[in-house]
Write a structure and sequence with these properties.
The protein is of the alpha+beta class. The chain folds into 2 domains: 54-58 and 212-495, no CATH class; 63-203, D-3-phosphoglycerate dehydrogenase, domain 3 (60s Ribosomal Protein L30, Chain: A, 2-Layer Sandwich). Helix content is 48%, strand content 11%. It contains 20 helices and 9 strands. Strands 5-2-6-7-8 form a 5-stranded mixed sheet. Helix 12 (301-321) crosses helix 18 (436-455) and helix 17 (406-418) runs antiparallel to helix 18. The chain is globular. Residues 1-24 have low confidence and may be disordered. The structure holds iron/sulfur cluster. Iron/sulfur cluster binds at residues 333-334, 378, 383, 386-387, 425, 427, 432, 435-436, 439, 486.
Length: 499
């Protein structure tokens, strides 16, 4: 390649237009570079197909926790629908519901409002429209709330819940066994549900869901990189085409959900910047997003920007802690990280909606890769899977929306995740307050930095790739002791509490 052609390629690459011209890189440092031949284990990139749509990743629902609030609400709502499908004979014998909570749901569910979420779902509330005030009323220990299913009235109360064993042998830490009982306590219907993080849920014996087969097959970023190079399409284009086929929707319907996500995120910042006062919890904890934002007006431009990004992230996280609607990105505990940078892209950089949608799709690719090959649950891999993944998604979004090519998009996500590795999940008292709210601010700032660093990287002059860092996150998460995985019994969860 002559010098002029090289300079042209370099210029196009820096504008994000040379995504198909940069050859696939054989990443990974040869072991022979190291004395002793390296660690003696080989990394294999993931292969397979991600069949989950971006739509399932970005779910709208009430806070504070996707695994402990949103998923239990969805589970209870699903169980209610199942009960509604029973024969009139079975339904006539039914007397009451029982919800048995296991593992982390039992250990920290009270701090995460799991009880209210389960009750709301049984009462027929839907996550996207659930009024936080309804959830608040359900906290009354004396309260009894009636719901009618096919003409039968059921009472739901705090007594519906059983805070069961923290140690158990179910395949997922967050397990919820839903039961329908008759007047003598005999089980008429039982379903074993799991909440694997991010507001997703599954159940034992679940039939495979019929959805469209993705046009572009990849399980990790290595394969996605190959798809991008082979087709000449951008990451958002690939994700959009898969989304349309998996969900059987046209582009307008896909865009409508992306717009809802962007709107909910920005509205969360707007609302959070107006609110003040104490957040719900067992100790006095005050909102500070508004104060931080007001202070930013008296600072120089550099400091002001940092303060503003922090205030946007905390505005959404504080709202989430108060049970306001937020978006799983990838979880509700980490729901403030991406909105902070959506707000920057919208209000500071004034990017068009199309660029924001593309950024969201790129973030979706990163989130799905992390979820598929590791986890996005603090209960499974610690906070690296929540704030770490949120930061990686936000970095990819900023890089993509500002016109970076696929290599820089991947690198931005990779750097953001890499520098969260090992982060434990140790919410004080099991409440999504300390360290979660400020942690979102740090996740957003790291994400913006990662996007800037990635865009200034020379193509091919870095070693890290996303799949390797995701594998490191999984390995680290497995090695983390259980008290550091959303149990509230390790780290800050212990040292912040006096005897
Ligand atoms: S510490 Fe991190 S992973 Fe744990 S609840 Fe808070 S935000 Fe989620």
């Amino acid at each position: 390649m002559d010098r002029r052609a090289f300079l042209k390629l370099a210029a196009l690459s820096s504008m994000g237009l040379a995504c198909t011209a940069v050859p696939a890189l054989a990443r990974g440092i040869p072991a022979k570079n190291f004395p002793g031949g390296g660690p003696g284990r080989c990394f294999t990139p993931p292969t397979g197909v991600i069949r989950i749509p971006v739509r399932d990743l970005f779910k709208v629902g009430p806070g504070p926790s996707s695994s402990h609030t949103l998923a239990p609400l969805r589970i209870a709502s699903h169980f209610r629908e199942t009960v509604a499908g029973l024969s009139p004979d079975d339904l006539t014998r039914a007397a009451r519901f029982e919800a048995r909570l296991f593992g982390s749901l039992s250990a920290t569910g009270q701090g995460h409002r799991t009880d209210r979420a389960v009750m709301a779902g049984l009462l027929g509330q839907q996550p996207e429209t659930c009024d936080p005030k309804v959830m608040d009323r359900l906290a009354d220990p004396q309260g009894r709330f009636d719901t009618v299913i096919n003409g039968r009235t059921f009472a739901v109360s705090q007594e519906t819940l059983v805070w069961d064993a923290v140690e158990h042998s179910y395949p997922y830490s967050n397990t919820l066994v839903m039961r329908l009982l008759d007047a003598q306590g005999q089980v008429l219907l039982e379903r074993e549900y799991y909440s694997p993080g991010g507001g997703f849920f599954l159940w034992k014996g679940q039939p495979e869901e019929r959805r469209g087969e993705p046009v572009h097959r990849f399980a990790g970023m290595t394969e996605l990189r190959r798809v991008v190079e082979a087709t000449g399409k951008s990451i958002p284009q690939v994700m959009l085409e898969n989304e349309m086929v998996i969900l059987g929707q046209d582009q307008a319907a896909v865009n409508a959900h992306l717009d809802l996500v962007l709107h909910t995120m920005a509205a969360g910042v707007d609302l959070g910047l107006k609110e003040e006062g104490q957040l719900p919890g067992p100790f006095p904890f005050f909102r500070k997003a508004r104060r931080v934002f007001e202070q930013s007006k008296r600072l120089g431009p550099g400091d002001a920007f940092l303060q503003q990004v922090s205030s946007y992230a905390m505005a959404v996280s504080e709202g989430n802690a108060a049970g306001r609607l937020a978006v799983t990105a990838p979880t509700l505990g980490s729901a403030g990280t991406m909105p902070a940078l959506v707000y920057v892209l919208q209000r500071h950089l004034k990017l068009p909606q199309k660029a924001l949608r593309q950024g969201l799709l790129a973030a979706g690719a990163v989130g799905l890769i992390c979820k598929t090959n590791a986890s996005v649950a603090g209960a499974e891999v610690g906070c690296q899977g929540e704030i770490g993944v949120a930061s990686a998604m936000a970095a990819a979004m900023v890089a993509c929306a500002t016109g970076a090519g696929p290599e820089a998009v991947e690198l931005a996500a990779t750097m953001a995740l890499e520098h969260h590795l090992g982060m434990s999940c140790d919410p004080v008292g099991g409440f999504v307050l300390i360290p979660c709210i400020e942690r979102n601010a740090f996740g957003a700032l790291k994400a913006y930095n990662a996007a800037l660093l990635a865009r200034s990287e020379q193509p091919g002059q870095h070693w890290e790739d996303l799949d390797r860092v995701v594998a490191a996150m999984l390995e680290t998460g497995k090695a983390l002791p259980q008290p550091f995985k959303e149990m509230g019994t390790g780290g800050l969860g212990v040292t912040m509490v006096d005897c």
